[in-house]
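Sequence design from tokenized structure. All designs in this work follow the same two-part layout: the structure record, then the generated sequence. An example of the structure record is given first.
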């Protein structure tokens, strides 16, 4: 690549471009007059004279002029240079229907021809190509033919959420690029699993999968669409039962009573991912009193003086959990105060019928009363309650530990405990009502102190008899009200207040949930956390930050609640003893259930009788057992996907080479897959994990319907309603965009981005069309052997081979944006501005079967075949379109023709091309720099009206670098056309000067001095070319006029024409 960079190296001149222009202009002004006089023949080159006699008669050349030129509008010229130069285009112009006299030599010019359209016409052509693949089973054949090592990209969790958005497109296209690349890779790998889609719930999933498949197909995503695998397939479900069983036998599955998110409206436990937090939820919060019973003996009478009227003041947003209270927690490090309620200031804050706040009766009671609250909150509470509070004593939270208080409802004594840092003075009182059956932090604190886990609430969210007088009441409704009323009656309610906060709702029913301790099945992450952490460090994470994310999440996660109370999904395959409630779960029961489900699907669990579900051995005890009604967490479903794919004998290797999903899956699928795999197989299910960011709009904002900035992949492909405002760009433009972004972070898309990408696509298409057009008469037998190629061609092949290798490396590293950059820089810019530009002369007028044209075509064919194949994973339709328009057959070693681009393999590495000598690499780097500088002087000469086309110029060079001078001199006199320096400059002549003397300078109107990297300065001069213009090739030479039969031709064209059958001028 260093070479490429070299050729890209900006201006190496000792002048900046504008300075160079100024210098050159100064020269020009004093020489202009001279120039006019000397333009015809006063200058002599060392090379051009002598071969073909002296110049003879000057013909009236201008009578026969046809004004053709290569311009940016020419379809076949990817170069957008405005400068008019290059070979004859007479024939083209004539064939374009212009009524000008046709050039006499039109038929001797080899103009490009191809059936490959300039326009992509993607809306028609892409579906045609997709049908071509389908009809010919190209994907299947590519997979079947591949008999080497398998590459497995395991597809991610299902998108069972309807229509596809840009995120899906990014994800699927990235996978498809990898998949297609791997299918072409010489090291012969195949992918069995990537294309297989999965989805969750039966009907919905199947319908969704169908519409999604249609979209994915339109993106050009390959897949085994006839055989997708769904989590609802019996085979899949059986594999999942197996994973559960394996984890249970390892001792990682247990049943426990813990508070979980519970949805009374759908009567099930919920995962964090199944909750939403709508705005505007209002809870009924209360400040309540819990009367202190005693202080611990160790307190040395610290609070004696305030008894018996000393109370703990607590605050809660869930009064219905008060019956389940088991402790009050304080923060050991906070300062607390004993305060006396001195005077009731009136119902100030609750006046004027404000329903948001209501004071309890206790404050209105004329009675001395002491409360304990956090010191920092005293002023806040004074204002809120409308009372005067006097601080009587302060103490630390740790001093309160083990005080006892009376439970406000059943009057049993409960302890004050030390909670965690979750206790602050941001709100409430600094004392936290603790109900381990209804809160996660409460549960943890409860475990520490051995508190009872009380949860007197049933599946419907109604109080059980454990809640005594509240039995049957709805905790989120009348139950809550009843508790508040009771506390007030007991003179334990200070205040009731509406409180707006984030509160979890069931994402399906849109109803509030509760925290509730129930018997659930858990996977003990603690049991295999260490192995998981070690496995994480063995996986390659792309980008590397992914490792930190999943490490943090895995190290801190609590045990995984895997049971759900749903009527659909895969059952937890456990029987319970009717009397003892003991679960029955062992290898025999698991094996038996697995075999049933593999055959009949998981529905069998629900409709079959216990005696049939039990293995033979237990059948006579069937009456003692009932089957469990819990199903597995959907994350357990998707997290077991590796087991279906890799579990079978003959399946792909385990672990998968790659998982690729959005960054949110560090919490989701990457983690659930890791946990199930570690617990059963002891290793991660993947070797590498790639994450991609989110798709944002052009300004970097999140896309949302309300903002109206949603970019729909379908609109990009098919176009919008107004085809002018939103034209359809086709799938390849969308795919090219995917390749262009650094997907490891968030990526942006919008109309402008897509327009730019489509412009790059158009140019790339133009480059490919140039190649196809100039190979219209090509056959492999025409190829010139490497050793016979001119240096310019060997250099081009060297660069091509380097580029192909770099692209391959970038595919291997999943750095697609690098490929995009190389395509943009090398294929579109570098090739067009140098090799292709110079090649036109050889191709069009060099002579159909001349060595110079055939060697150029040898190089072009190599480029075409390589470029089409290396872009194929990203731009499959374009690559196939090229392949279908190949004017020649591409055959593999066994002689069979490769009919589709995806039947071809990755270009075979060519060591010979790479072995271009280092000093030549260096030299050609200088030639490219020199050419850039020569072009600048030519540009100045053009501005000064000395020349129009660069072919009207002669270039002079001088350098004191002897070796460079000698090489350049060789090229001025090169025997092969292709390496001739003036051809490379696209001028008519080039000459090396031994000295730059005043005498010579007078004849050279434009000049400048430039520094070429690694060499001395090079002096460049430009004058008008000697001789007359050849009618056929537009090059100027004194030879024109030398040939009697063809008086308007140059020597080269004379030779070409003389061997061509020409009706008008018969060959003598
Ligand atoms: Zn010519």
């Amino acid at each position: 690549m260093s070479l490429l960079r070299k050729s890209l190296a900006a201006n190496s001149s000792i002048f900046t471009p504008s300075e160079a222009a100024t210098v050159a202009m100064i020269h020009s002004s004093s020489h202009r007059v001279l120039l006019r006089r000397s333009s015809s023949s006063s200058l002599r080159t060392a090379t051009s004279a002598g071969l073909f006699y002296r110049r003879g008669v000057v013909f009236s050349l201008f009578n026969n002029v046809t004004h053709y030129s290569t311009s940016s509008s020419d379809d076949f010229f990817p170069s957008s240079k405005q400068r008019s130069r290059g070979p004859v285009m007479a024939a083209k112009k004539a064939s374009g229907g212009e009524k000008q006299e046709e050039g006499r030599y039109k038929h001797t010019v080899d103009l490009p021809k191809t059936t490959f359209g300039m326009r992509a016409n993607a809306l028609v052509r892409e579906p045609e190509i997709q049908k071509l693949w389908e009809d010919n089973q190209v994907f299947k054949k590519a997979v079947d033919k591949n008999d080497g090592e398998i590459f497995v990209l395991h597809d991610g969790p299902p998108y069972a959420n309807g229509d596809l958005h840009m995120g899906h497109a990014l994800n699927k296209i990235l996978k498809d690029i990898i998949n297609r690349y791997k299918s072409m890779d010489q090291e012969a790998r195949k992918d069995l699993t990537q294309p297989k889609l999965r989805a969750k719930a039966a009907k919905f999933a199947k319908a969704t999968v169908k519409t999604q498949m249609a979209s994915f197909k339109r993106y050009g995503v390959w897949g085994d669409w006839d055989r997708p695998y769904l989590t609802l397939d019996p085979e899949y479900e059986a594999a999942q039962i197996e994973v559960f069983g394996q984890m249970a036998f390892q001792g990682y599955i247990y049943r426990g009573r813990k508070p979980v998110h519970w949805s009374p409206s759908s009567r099930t436990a919920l995962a964090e991912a199944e909750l939403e937090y709508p705005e505007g939820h209002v809870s009924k919060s209360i400040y309540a009193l819990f009367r202190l019973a005693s202080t611990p003996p160790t307190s040395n009478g610290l609070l004696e003086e305030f008894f018996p009227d000393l109370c703990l003041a607590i605050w809660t947003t869930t009064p219905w959990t008060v019956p389940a209270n088991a402790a009050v927690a304080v923060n050991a490090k906070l300062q607390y105060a004993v305060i006396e309620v001195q005077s009731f200031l009136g119902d100030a804050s609750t006046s004027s019928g404000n329903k948001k706040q209501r004071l309890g009766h206790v404050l209105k009671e004329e009675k001395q009363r002491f409360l304990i609250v956090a010191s920092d909150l005293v002023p806040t509470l004074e204002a809120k309650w409308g009372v005067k509070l006097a601080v009587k004593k302060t103490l630390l939270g740790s001093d309160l530990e083990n005080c006892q208080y009376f439970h406000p409802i059943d009057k049993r004594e409960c302890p004050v405990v030390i909670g965690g840092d979750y206790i602050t003075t941001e709100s409430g009182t600094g004392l936290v009502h603790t109900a381990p059956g209804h809160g996660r932090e409460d549960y943890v604190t409860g475990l520490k102190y051995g508190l009872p886990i009380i949860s007197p609430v049933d599946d419907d969210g109604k109080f059980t008899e454990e809640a005594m007088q509240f039995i049957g009441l709805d905790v989120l409704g009348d139950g809550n009200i009843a508790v508040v009323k009771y506390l007030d009656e007991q003179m334990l309610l200070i205040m009731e207040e509406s409180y707006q906060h984030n509160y979890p709702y069931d994402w399906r029913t849109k109803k509030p949930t509760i925290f509730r301790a129930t018997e659930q099945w858990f996977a003990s992450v603690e049991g295999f956390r260490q192995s998981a952490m070690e496995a994480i460090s063995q996986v390659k994470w792309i980008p590397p930050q992914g490792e930190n994310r999943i490490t943090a999440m895995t190290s801190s996660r609590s045990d995984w609640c895997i049971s759900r109370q749903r009527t659909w999904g895969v059952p937890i395959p456990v029987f319970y003893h009717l009397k003892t409630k003991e679960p029955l779960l062992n290898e025999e029961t698991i094996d038996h259930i697995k075999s049933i489900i593999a055959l009949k699907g998981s529905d069998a669990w629900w409709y079959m009788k216990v005696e049939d579900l039990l293995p033979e051995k237990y059948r006579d005890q069937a009456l003692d057992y009932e089957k469990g009604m819990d199903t597995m967490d959907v994350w357990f479903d998707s997290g077991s996907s590796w087991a279906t794919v890799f579990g079978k004998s003959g399946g792909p290797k385990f672990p998968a080479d790659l998982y690729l999903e959005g960054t949110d899956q560090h919490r989701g699928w990457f983690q659930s897959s890791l946990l199930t795999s570690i617990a059963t197989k002891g290793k991660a299910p993947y070797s590498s994990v790639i994450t991609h960011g989110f798709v944002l709009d052009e300004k970097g904002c999140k896309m949302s319907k309300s903002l109206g900035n949603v970019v729909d992949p379908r609109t990009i492909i098919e176009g919008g309603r107004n085809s002018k405002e939103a034209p359809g760009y086709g799938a390849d433009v969308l795919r090219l965009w995917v390749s262009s972004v650094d997907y490891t972070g968030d990526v942006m898309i919008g109309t402008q981005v897509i327009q730019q990408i489509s412009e790059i696509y158009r140019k790339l298409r133009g480059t490919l069309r140039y190649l196809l057009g100039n190979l219209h008469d090509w056959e492999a037998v025409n190829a010139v052997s490497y050793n016979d190629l001119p240096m310019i061609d060997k250099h081009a092949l060297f660069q091509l081979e380097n580029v192909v290798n770099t692209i391959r490396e970038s595919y291997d590293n999943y750095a697609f944006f690098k490929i995009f950059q190389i395509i943009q820089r090398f294929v579109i810019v570098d090739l067009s501005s140098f090799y292709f530009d110079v090649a036109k002369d050889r191709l069009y007028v060099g002579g159909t079967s001349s060595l110079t044209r055939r060697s150029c075509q040898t190089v072009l064919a190599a480029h075409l075949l390589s470029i089409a194949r290396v872009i194929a994973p990203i731009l499959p339709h374009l690559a196939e379109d090229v392949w279908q328009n190949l004017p020649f057959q591409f055959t593999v070693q066994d002689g069979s023709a490769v009919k589709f681009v995806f039947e071809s393999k990755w270009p075979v590495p060519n060591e010979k091309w790479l072995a271009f000598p280092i000093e030549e690499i260096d030299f050609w780097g200088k030639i490219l720099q020199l050419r850039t500088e020569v072009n600048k002087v030519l540009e100045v000469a053009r501005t000064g009206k000395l020349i129009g086309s660069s072919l009207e110029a002669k270039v002079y060079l001088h350098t004191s670098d002897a070796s460079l001078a000698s090489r350049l001199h060789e090229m001025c006199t090169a025997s092969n056309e292709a390496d001739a320096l003036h051809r490379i400059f696209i001028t008519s002549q080039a000459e090396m000067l031994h000295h730059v003397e005043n005498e010579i300078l007078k004849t050279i109107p434009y000049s400048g001095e430039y520094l070429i990297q690694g060499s001395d300065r090079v002096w460049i001069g430009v004058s008008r070319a000697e001789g007359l213009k050849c009618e056929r090739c537009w090059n100027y030479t004194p030879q024109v006029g030398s040939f009697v039969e063809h008086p308007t031709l140059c020597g080269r064209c004379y030779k070409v024409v003389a061997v061509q059958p020409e009706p008008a001028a018969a060959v003598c």
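The pocket of zinc ion is lined by residues 1030, 1032-1033, 1035, 1049-1050, 1052-1053 (CB under 6 Å). We note this feature because it recurs in several other targets discussed in the main text.
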